[in-house]
Amino acid sequence: MTSPRPRLAIIAHDGKKADLVAFATFNRDRLSDYDLIGTGATADLLENKVGLAVERVSPGPEGGDVQIASRVVQGEVDAVLFIVDPLDSHPHDPDIQTLLRICNVRNVPLATNIATADILISSPLIRELRQAV
Length: 133
What we know:
Helix content is 48%, strand content 17%. The longest helix has 13 residues, at 93-105. Strands 3-2-1-4-5 form a 5-stranded parallel β-sheet. By secondary structure, the chain is of the alpha/beta class. It has a single domain, classed as Methylglyoxal synthase-like domain (Rossmann fold, 3-Layer(aba) Sandwich).
């Protein structure tokens, strides 16, 4: 049986992890209403610094972005917060682009910055995604 709670994947580049922790701390109560999935150190930070329960997949550079993309394809992720650092290069950029492309192909809400993440998790429409399943 699937959970009635929305499933939210959370990823942040190293240069944006502090911003994500601040965002998650401010929105702890709201985020606790989601089933969270996170890559590597992002999941660890959300658990250890913010106190949120997060299912951990591999770090992004070790395939975590692809694991999240696979879950999007399988319909196991309702929305993705991928807080990107646009001013830094990433050796696993093809994996990142795959995840972004899959979200667009599957019409899965995707936030790539804190402002959009705020809007996404505040929308009542996110609940309708789970009710439609």
